[in-house]
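haha ok so turns out i had the wrong file open the whole time. this is the CORRECT one, sorry everyone. sequence first:
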Amino acid sequence: MFGIEDEWKNGLNMKKSQNKFFFLYIGIIIILCTIMSGCTSPNTMSLNYNTLWRYQTPGNITPYISVQDGFVYVGYEPGVDALKASNGTKIWEFKTGKPVTSAPVMGGGVLYFTSQDSNVYALKPDTGEKIWNYSTEDIISSSPVILNKVVYAGSWDTRVYALDAITGTKKWDFKTGGMIFAPPAVYRGMVYTGSQDGKIYALDGVNGKKKWEFTTGDVIISSPLVKEDGVYIDSGDSTIYALNAKTGEKKWDYKSGGYLFGSPVESEGVISIRNSEGIFMINNTGILKGKYATNDNTDSSPVIADGILYLADENSVQALRKK
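then structure:
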């Protein structure tokens, strides 16, 4: 057993995870095309892997997974299970009042996750013992973000919360005009969050005070991408917006022509996002660079760790090794 303060002294080991609203579609395409035997067409991929094990989960929702230090942590309908990454053996389980619809996140040697029972939880990752929980006033459907011993989480109660990662006590909260479905982005002392009210908010990470807000044309159900001096966010108005990170002033916008499902991701100056027609890539000035048609039906992203590909589909998790 260990003390949470001692684990934080070993340094923060944060692993970003995804929830059902974002990061999954572009992640699937990039991972599968890169590590499998190749893409024979935009909609056909061959899987050159052997199944190492499969773990069957109860319930009716797709599990959400993260991999850390030889363990696979699975969030699903009854709670969270910890599996041995090598063989899929269950080590422990932790039950919540309602489904867990986002991936657990490791930070400073502690496992954090949220639940539709309105709670943020902190567990000891080796035993599943609860360290603390914090109750909001409504469902939380996305993963928390952990940085500098602070846990940030958005809730359907319209608030974004900053909690002490060691004790679970609230540092501050900020009320928006609508439900928050996705994790905030934390960057250079600022917290950026989108809301169902169609706005993105920039908050001071220390005290939660609003620095600026920007209004889009529809609801926001995704997490912002922050790169250097830019904030990128997609909206239900089928548009991705590029904003100045310090002022909130719009740099450019791009209308995708289809409903946007996930958060933008960036690599080498190219921003990728999925809409109802597939994945499209634009450069950092708002110019379209390419499109990729998809027909994905999963709700959870694959995860790669130590050469093993972990996939979650409806009611199961499997581990695959390349032939």
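The two ends are 38 Å apart (CA to CA).
again sry for the mixup
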